[in-house]
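Q: My labmate handed me this sequence with no annotations at all. I'd like to see what the chain might look like in three dimensions before we decide whether it's worth expressing. Could you predict it?
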Amino acid sequence: MTGEHLQQLLAVLGAEPAERYEALRWRLVRLFTWERCGEPEALADEALDRLARRVTEGEAIERLESYLFGIARMLLREEAARAVRQRTKLAEFSREQMRLSLPASDELAERLRRCLESLEPEQRRIVLAYYDGSPRERLASELGLQLNALRNRALRLREKLEKCVMIHRNASLEKEDR
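A: Here is what I predict for the chain of 178 residues:
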């Protein structure tokens, strides 16, 4: 917040502006703490900064506190979206770590080949066609399925293959332990 923004905000806060500013800031900190935000003080400062910018821009604000807590609600939504993005990135990182911890590609390919052979011919055709890069709409049409139904079927088959590969992995680990 610039000095000009602060001065204009203090001017609209009325009598005893410094005390009112601190009281509002404290209420915001409590709100963000209550909502379990990572940095409640920083978010309170950001809310007050945004309010100060709006005041400086000449925006007509009838009920200052209500407006400020509206800004706080928007910040809470932004924080929630940021948390979702962070969880998604962490999940991607975790999947990548799992991928890197898989066995050598020849061994993995052999396990996958065995698991694919264990599928029924139609299931094997679906999973191979779905993941080979060909247009999925065409595959769905050939099978007489909606695209979402094809996605669900491919997902279930992939999960079945992953489970099978892990079972073969565990079995080979048990053999190594003997």
